[in-house]
Every structure is written in structure tokens, then in C-alpha cells.
């Protein structure tokens, strides 16, 4: 098994590409060992000293290391080993009955803004999420109120130093271009 790695804009996160589907649909994120218990793979990754977060996409795994614990040259071999061992064992990525990330948080918006929200979701799905996934993360719609779009950053994007610039200069400008009623984009 050959696992490729890619740097992300977040220096604390590396993207691992195992060359196979990680999750056929949806995403999974664990920000601590307790959250990792719903996934045998996440549990294995959290057993690596220095790992502080994991995110699973369709065909990638983003792993975040804690600041000041170890550097990537010390952490990366153990992460690669945990991923390889997991996939060679044939165990599932998620424990049976585990809800995926999209199912966990309710959206909020006024029903009168339905058309605006539909356009926001379409722009996210077709233009933003593919680019963000390329960097090992995800961005999801959480709400819209009074001209403000609320989005959640996940994976490599969560806590990334450049995520604010991505939201303000990229996503916010895109939304404003197509939807003049959008005043601002905020991460929650």
C-alpha cells in the first residue's frame, strides 16, 4: 500500500491520500480522543503521540498535530503506519451506527431566505468545497441571518492561519458577487 502525503495551508495539518475511498459519503471529524472512539481508524491515529485532530473526507485523511509536541518528521511515520495497519486489517473506518458530520448540526435561517440559502449551498458545493477539500479540509453551511452567512471550517481549515483570508477574500467575495444581500461571512 502506498500512501501519499501533501502539505496543507495549515502547518499543523498534513493530508494523507491512501489511494482508496476513506468515506464513500459524508465526512467525519474528531478533535479529541473521546470523539475518535466512533472510528477505529481515528482511535489508532489518536494513539500516535502528538496527534490532536483527524478529519476524513472521501479519499483523504487530514491529521493535525498539537503545537510544540513533536515535529512532522517525528509524527508522520507513526501516522503512516497507523493508516496502513488499519486499511490492511480490513476493519471499518467508522464504527457501526456512527452518524456522519453533516447530520450532527442543524442549520438556521428564515424560511423567507430559502432561495438565497439554496444559492449559497449551491455555490459552496460547486465552487468552494472542492477547492477546500484539495487543501485537506471542508467548509459547511450552518446558517444565514441578517445578511451574514455562517460557515463551519473543518479538517485542515479549522484553526488554519489562512482560513480567515479564505473566508473574507474568497468565499465572501464570491457570495457578494452572486448575492448582493450577503454582507459578511463568519466562521462558527
Detailed description of the structure:
With 188 residues, the protein is α+β, with helices and mostly antiparallel strands. It folds into two domains: 4-89, Ribosomal Protein S8, Chain: A, domain 1, CATH 3.30.1370; 111-187, 2-Layer Sandwich (GMP Synthetase, Chain A, domain 3), CATH 3.30.300.130. It contains five helices and nine strands. The protein has helices at residues 33-36, 40-46, 72-89, 114-134, 163-178, and strands spanning 4-7, 13-17, 28-30, 51-56, 61-65, 108-109, 137-145, 148-155, 184-187. A five-stranded antiparallel β-sheet has the order 1-2-5-4-3. The protein is elongated and about 50 Å long. The model has no long low-confidence stretch (mean pLDDT 88). Residues 3-90 form the Scaffold protein Nfu/NifU N-terminal domain. This is Fe-S cluster biogenesis protein NfuA. Belongs to the NifU family. InterPro entries: FSCA_dom_sf, Nfu/NifU_N, Nfu/NifU_N_sf, NFU1-like, NIF_FeS_clus_asmbl_NifU_C. It comes from Methylorubrum thiocyanatum.
